[in-house]
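Quick one - inputs below.
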Amino acid sequence: MFEPWAEKYQPHKLSEVVGQPQAIQSLSKWVDCWRRGKPEKPAALLYGPAGTGKTSAAVALAGEMGWDLIELNASDKRTFDMIQKVAGTAATTGTLLAGATGKRLVVLDEADNVYGTADRGGYRAIEQVLKEASNPVVLIANDQYSIPWTIRALCLLVNFRRLTQDSIVKILERICKAEKIEAEPLVLNVIAESARGDLRSAINDLQALAIGKRRLYIKDVVVYRRDREVNIFEVLGQLMHATSSRQARGLLWALDRPPEDAIDWISENIPRMLPEPADLDRVYEALSRADVFLGRIRRRQAYGMMGYAGDLMTAGVTLSRQGELKHVRFQAPSSGTLMGRARATRAVRDSVAKKIAKCCHTSSREARKHFLPYMNVIFRCDKKVANRIAEELELEEPEINYLART
Amino acid sequence: MSLVEAEEIWVEKYRPKKLSEIVGQDEVVSRLQSFVDKKSLPHLLFAGPAGTGKTTAALCIARELFGDAWKQNMLELNASDARGIDVIRASRDRKEPSELPSVKDYARTKPIGDFLYKLILLDEADAMTSEAQNALRRTMEKYTRTCRFILDCNYSSRIIEPIQSRCAVFRFRKLNEKDIAQYLKRIVRSENVRLTDDGIKAIVYVSEGDMRRAINMFQAAATMGKKVDAKAVYEVSAVARPEEVRQMLELALEGRFEEARSKLYELLINQGLAGEDILDQVHREIFNLKIPESDKVELIDKVGEFDYRLTEGASERIQLEAALAHFVLIGARLKS
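Output:
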């Protein structure tokens, strides 16, 4: 049976969590306070990038202290009642095993995802729970600033950083030893390097690589990476040499990705291959039209448009080219993760605009275009006025930070 | 939150509370005043450019008719935030639940206090789809006894005929320098700031006759320092509307596509700007570029096309990159 190594080798004690010395020190002290009564801050907010050990630390903590673990995730439909019901009672009553003196650890995972009108009550409920809690609560988030300051003020803030390549390699070495796998030098380094600080993905990569093998050679790693990415790169390379629309379209199937993803890969790389401005313009026209179809699919669920989008982004692109091709190194689309980050910024921006719109008898759009830039100036130059406006509009911390950004 | 009077944002703090305080619309105001004095109000349609006093006039009417109970007897909806027919429909008839109050539900209930009717203010009514406007027309007819509508729009031609014929139409004109100066000077008297004559001219120029923009700009410039002169105004404008869009376009015109693209990502991602807002600025910047007029026209046409595609739901990144690609093409053509 397939057992993910990321779970199999999870730490059982806080001391076993690797690569986060300050975070663990902070957490240990906090845990000690709970041993003796109740700490000044009953909640801890663990924040940082993906795969750096936040959830594992929380689980290890609970295990080590013999606390029951209750996990709530942002994907649960969080309403005021639900959090109250589950977390509230969980936080204030004892456990089955240890009775009234036992403690349970309540973990609120993806706590930065509660934002938004659907969960308007969610943060208020969390705040209340934290204030009344007699049990430890851990909040887990990627971005601490997406959580209202009123809640952050009640928490011990624990920062989890991206792991260094060395820490990741050490852990991979340990796993290899336990799984009786021998790895050529550099193999683990390459895996660790591509993980970019995310330990979980490094372990997953190692496991995927090692299936059915006793020894790992450097060429396996290269091949594995190639399988994941170069397949796409090969297709991209072939795309610009296709001579018929049928051939070009066929490549989309080979790409094995839905058109919304494929267009990102294509638009990231193909334009860089075109030194002729006329070609650049024509290719983008094709991509732009393809994207319009994708937009129609998004807006109106008109899935029949999928074919047109696919054709335009392949045949449309290929056959627009008349000039030379430049050889470039293909790369993954950077915009994906970047746009994800942008989404969070925009959510904040839009909620500020909405508040201003309501107060000033105008539309959100007008507020966004014509009030926000001037609010930005005011918030940067005069903190006193900024505070008064923030109070009047009932702005939350991320909204204030957005308005005061430089 | 809308029950609290805003005191900190000057646009609200200094918004006229009486019709007589509105500047630059004397004829309109005197006609409206006579309706209010007789307490006899037809449905109203206010048409005109942004920031000329339309919403203010509606709010003043509400205050003068209802006194302290004005907020309870007026429903304000902005049609651009909620365009569809659901805004008009009764809550129970809606396809999706919405937090916005329904015009129908509001129209059919009686006023609070000893008044004959309530007011419904529909801002940016020209953003309503014609389906919604037709539903609105029926509602207007049905509840004309208990409810008066005040519709507010930029272009009256976008309001369907049947609605126009049921309303008294008032055209608000664009404000001139005198109007804006007069109003800004009122603010100067209450807020301890200095406003020079060239400062006024600068504000008038940049705000393009829109009082709301003028006041926002004035407030922002005032927080930057004690004296608001032309320099301060342009500084604020530059900060609020940075040079970055121009830089991005210049890179594209020079053929440096990838650099232009990076700049675009910065605007989209770090600054969280909306694609349509960026295109708006691009549109404005085209006029400042040092290229032949015919190329400017071609670019405007293209940019307009990409803007339209955005409204169709296309993705910002790709459409804006495509716009940049066209700048690259124009730039290359000019070089040869």
